[in-house]
Amino acid sequence: DGHGAEQPLPLDEPVEIAVSAEEKVLDSRKHVLRRGMNEIRLVVDAQPSSVTVDPWITRIDRNPVDNRKGF
């Protein structure tokens, strides 16, 4: 709203997801995400150390730091 309160939006569109090992990107491509829980399985050439949703911050996000999950 116009007062800074965030409202969840319906989601049914491609969003970039990147898988990395240290500083090397193992896979980065768009996957369709929908509202609710999404499960994506990827096969990569090395042990990943993190995954990031919207790694290039193309969407408005007040807290883009929580888009990355380290292992």
Question: Any descriptors?
Answer:
globular; mainly beta; 4-stranded antiparallel sheet; 71 residues
Characterization of this structure:
Helices cover 0% and strands 39% of the residues. The chain has 71 residues and is mainly beta. It has strands at 12-21, 24-34, 50-53, 68-70.
How far is the N terminus from the C terminus? 35 Å
Shape: globular
Output the structural class: mainly beta
Q: Which range best describes the helical content: under 10%, 10-25%, 25-40%, 40-55%, 55-70% or over 70%?
A: under 10%
Q: List how many beta strands DSSP finds.
A: 4
Largest sheet: 4 strands, antiparallel
Order of helices and strands: EEEE
Averaging pLDDT over every residue, what do you get?
91
**How many DSSP helices?**
0
Low-confidence blocks of residues: none
Beta fraction:
35-45%
Order of adjacent strands in the largest pleated sheet: 2-1-3-4
Tell me the Rg in angstroms. 14 Å
Outline of the structure:
Helices cover 0% and strands 39% of the residues. With 71 residues, the chain is mostly beta strands.
SSE arrangement:
Layout: E1 12-21, E2 24-34, E3 50-53, E4 68-70
Antiparallel strand pairs: 1-2, 1-3, 3-4
